[in-house]
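Sequence in, structure out. Go.
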Amino acid sequence: MTDKKFAKDVAKELDRRQRRRKLVVLGGGATAIVLAVMYLRCGHGWGLGGDGTGSGPGGGSGAESISSKRCELRVAKAGITLAGHAATRDEAIAACKPLGAADVVVTGDAREGDWDDLRKALEAAKIDIALRRPR
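Output:
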């Protein structure tokens, strides 16, 4: 009777080992596939740094390049501000026209008509608008 119990225990242990081995092999294979897809999809490298010499047109950091190429407008209860200074709608359009793009922040207390008028004027002048409403 002990031989049967011993045989069952050995069989259970062998089954557990086989199951563990199968999980390790399948997990390793899945990890290899995920890493291969990431490598092929995300470029050649793992994002661990480097000298950063690229073929891009910019010379400065990203924030400086973007902000220097876009007009900064804010529409609030007090009116329109251009780069922190009060401005009329026509002054804002004239300043943004050469750049062709504007970052516009519309505050919660802004008069909807002011924003509508400014938006229509920007669109008529073919100025790209990036709208942001702060929370």
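Check: The first strand starts at residue 71 and ends at 76. The first helix runs from residue 2 to 42.
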